[in-house]
User: Which sequence fits this backbone?
């Protein structure tokens, strides 16, 4: 399938694996890229720019296909060494970067000069337009359903995607709630040029996370995610568990007075324990409502091949028959 996104990134299928903390290691990105999609290494999971350089080198040993790096801009007391990460990305020869969080304006000149294509993840039309205006090559439009940070507007993809299509000139992919061939065809129908998946890629054979995480996603239904940190205006969609219930109790009790320090034990630095050790109640971890559509743990190639075959069949057979 050819779209503006496959052309922009030089990939076979219009399917991107979004950056995911403690999931987006070299193994994940390489498996997705080898299957014809676009794999993304999560930059900040590596503690230092040197660590990221090694991870990029490891990924190059596993694939000769294009892959990218995610750089997430989060508010932090001690910010990561962003200039160092940007330098490493450029010096390592990476040509595709997925930015997320705050506006990436500051890093755009360096990336543009180095010929790096930037896809910025946005949860609203206004942020998407801003990304377009500062020179981003594409956007990933992340609806309210998404795992991770859906923003504070709560607009689901059935509205957000066609609104983005009404306003944007640069290509965009649908992100949040995407799982299969039906998602891809729907995303294309709503104006997107492909799709970005997070949660679906965790439940694959190659995802370098503990088996408990994969099983938790397969076992979850679409009713099992919760929104935490809303009073802090840092809303995150996570899979419900004992730690999440504790956070929600605290938020209900303290209301708008709740502080990050009140919940830090359940959200700060918990990813290694969950993703690597499989301690499923150690804290809150991002997961999309799409868990309700995930019933198996295929390889990335099986997953992507099935998505593409199903999408082709839906377009040619189901929809083709309906057209008058
Ligand atoms: C476990 C997990 C960790 C994530 N970590 C990040 C991250 O560090 N940076 C980022 O930009 N997005 C992150 N995301 C968001 C994904 O890249 C993607 O936008 C999102 O999962 C799409 O929604 P879906 O889960 O419904 O597919 C994360 C998502 C998950 C599920």
Assistant:
């Amino acid at each position: 399938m050819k779209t503006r996104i496959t052309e922009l990134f030089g990939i076979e299928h219009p399917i991107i694996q979004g950056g995911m903390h403690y999931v987006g290691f070299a193994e994940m990105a390489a498996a997705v890229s080898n299957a014809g999609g676009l794999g993304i290494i999560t930059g900040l999971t590596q503690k230092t720019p040197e660590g990221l350089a090694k991870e990029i080198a490891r990924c190059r040993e596993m694939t000769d296909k294009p892959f990218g790096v995610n750089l997430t801009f989060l508010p932090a007391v001690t910010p990561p060494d962003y200039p160092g990460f940007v330098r490493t990305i450029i010096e390592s020869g990476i040509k595709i970067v997925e930015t997320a969080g705050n506006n990436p304006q500051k890093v755009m000149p360096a990336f543009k000069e180095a010929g790096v294509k930037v896809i910025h993840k946005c949860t609203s039309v206004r942020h998407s337009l801003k990304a377009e205006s500062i020179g981003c090559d594409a956007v990933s439009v992340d609806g309210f359903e998404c795992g991770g940070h859906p923003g504070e507007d709560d607009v689901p993809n059935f509205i957000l995607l066609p609104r983005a299509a009404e306003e944007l000139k640069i290509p965009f992919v649908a992100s949040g709630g995407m799982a299969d061939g039906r998602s891809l065809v729907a995303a294309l129908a709503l104006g997107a040029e492909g799709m970005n998946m997070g949660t679906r890629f965790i439940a694959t054979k190659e995802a370098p996370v503990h088996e408990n995480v994969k099983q938790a996603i397969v076992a979850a239904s679409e009713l099992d995610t919760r929104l935490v940190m809303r009073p802090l205006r840092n809303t995150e969609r996570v899979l419900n568990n004992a730690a999440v219930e504790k956070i929600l109790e605290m938020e209900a009790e303290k209301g708008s007075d709740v502080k990050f320090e009140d919940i830090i034990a359940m959200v700060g630095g918990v990813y290694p324990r969950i993703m690597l050790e499989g301690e499923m109640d150690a804290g809150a971890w991002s997961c999309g409502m799409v868990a309700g559509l995930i019933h198996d743990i295929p390889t990335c190639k099986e997953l992507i091949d099935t998505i593409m075959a199903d999408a082709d069949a839906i377009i040619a057979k189901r929809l083709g028959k309906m057209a008058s």
